[in-house]
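From the pipeline queue, job 12 of 40. The input is one protein chain; the requested action is below.

Action: predict structure.
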Amino acid sequence: LLRTVVLVMVRTRRTAAAAAGEETADVEPASAVEPPAAAEAVTAEHMAASDDSDAEEEEVEEAEDEGSGESDGEDDAELEGEELEDEEDEVDSSDVDSEEEEEEEEAAAAALVAAAADAAAEEEDGDDEAEARRGAAALGLGGSEQPESDSEDEMPLNTIGNVPLEWYDGFEHVGYDLEGRKIMRGARTDELDALIKRFDDPDANRTIHDALHGVDVVLSQEDVALIRRLQRRRYPGATFDPYPETVPFDFPDGKVHPLSSAPPRKAPFLPSKDEAKKVMRLVMAMRSEQYQRSVANRRLQEAKERPDYQQLIWDEPPEGEVRHRKRLPAPKVSLPGNAESYNPPKEYLFTPEEAKAWEKMDPADRPLGFVPQAYDAMRKVPQYDGLIRERFERCLDLYLCPREAKTRLDIDPDSLLPQLPSPAELRPFPERLSSRFVGHAGRVLSVSVSPSGEHLLSASADGTVKLWEVETGRCERTCSLGAEVRSVRWCPNGETAVAAAVVGVKMLLLLPLREPLPAAVRGAALLEPGGGEAGASSEPAEGAVVWSRPSAELQSEGVAWEVSHVRSATSVSWHHRGDYLASVAPEGASRAVLLHQLSRRKSGSPFARSKGRVEAVAFHPKKPWLCVATQRHVRIYDLASQELHKKLNPSAKWISSLSVHPGGDNLLLGSYDKRLCWFDLDLSASPYKTLRSHSLAIRSVAFHPRLPLFASASDDASVHVYHGRVYSDLMSNALIVPLKILKGHEITSHLGVMDIAWHPTQPWLFSAGADGSILLYTG
């Protein structure tokens, strides 16, 4: 039925084409006009052809019924061809065109019959070679082999890449070849033309369409056989042997079977405990917050480094800003100056001495890379010898020197400064020089104010200790101690007028006031040989520090007792209650620090071994702590439990002085390397603030006993006053504000201000200088 329908459609189209040709012809030659007999013959031929078509349909049906039992399809194809030839002999030879049409129709019918016969034969035949032969016969190849063609190699290669072919639906080309030329699309046919071509073209059954290049490709006999094998789920190669011969193998131990018949061990079937521990450790590590944060950070970093392929160059620009690598322009060459002119001014020309000096200089140190010269005209200027070298160095700089784009910061300098209150709001504090105490012949090493604030003691290198009246500046008394007095400190107990001074290896306890005063009377009673609790004490043990009475000469100067050290002492410090004091001898090893009790007249060393070179000591104002400053560290000891409480690291090379805040929570250090360190004992072991305002070594630091003030004295002959407020709220840090720089001393022998002391109640500051004067600064 399908064959009949196709034949009818082919004849109908050809008849319509012939009729159109006859109508358009104006005059036909005589030889082209058919006689009546010829027309009758053609009519008879068409009638016979229709009858033959009916007979052919019956024969095809019979051939299809018989084809299921036949094993060879070629015999049927030959028989059908002979019948077709007999029918063609009956057609009139005069009509050549009709004969050609009939031959084409009969060839198409023969191809259909042969294909049906081959399909029936392929179901029974399993051999690959016979299958390939039948496929070739079905496609009209017969038994002859088709010559190979290299038309595929000559075909232009489409280089559009992996892009959708739908993008080229509206164009006449399907891509571009290697040379950039367009690959034009093949002729497009409709379904009817394609159906007709299947009968007209003997290679239609093995023709496929290449959508990438827009052309039709004819498959070879080998390609068809390969496709047949793949469809039947066989191996692609026809010569492949899926069952090769077994290679015998001889085991070295002589066993026939390599496996053992022993039962398997139990251990491989039990879970490993070591692996379970490793898994648990990994699970715990993966559940930890640190691992989760690292995974999140790694994913974020990978997302940033991953390129964005979503945007194509022909797409619309995205809404957000696209970050591109910014190209850095090369630095511009400096413009030529007057020295590079062909006729520079005379002041730019080198003298003979300057030319010789220029030649002796290293090329990297020369201010100019050439010697300026003058010419009358530009035509007389020769070629520059260093042109190629300079261009080469310029290229090297651009190639080898890295360049980096730096964002210019537009920052107001005032915004970098901390917002501090105005000094006018922090009054009162010392602002001006009010009095000058003059009388010492040598440099003044130490000053101390009485608890009442009425008197001042000063120690000098001339071997004297002077008592001054603060209000009038009058010297009331001078005590000559016979050697350089390194330090003097007034007892903080106002009821007893007692002071301690350090002279050489001895610490002296003296009564600076006269006896008519009540405080002097009580102090004398305390320092009497049988006074206090000393009368009930036993004899001192061997090796203990001994209190001894001074000579008559020192007693006449007001000295009551003297205590000897192993080495020369440098400073003395009182406890806030006035019964204990500590003295420092830096080179005393294990006895570098001695603690003395005034009421019992006993002394002892708190350390069994040396802690280093001790520079200063201070008692805590509220707790039984002793602060010991060595050369680089500060150790705080608890005297009650006799253990180290805390160790401070100021990062200073050499500590010079120490002072404890009246509240007890803060500590101030001065060092010879010009550092002023503020420590918050509740915060950290490192400095809370480090100030470097002095230009030379700091000699002394001191807190005011009542007001939020502290000061530092340096060898630069200046005293810096600061506002230091400590809040009771533990969440608030201390406020430190520089207030005033006080000057008035002169530098003598590279020494400036040696010591400072605050007035107990007023914002007054006393300073002792190496120039032999004592200055009083008031607000």
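Job complete. The first strand starts at residue 173 and ends at 176.
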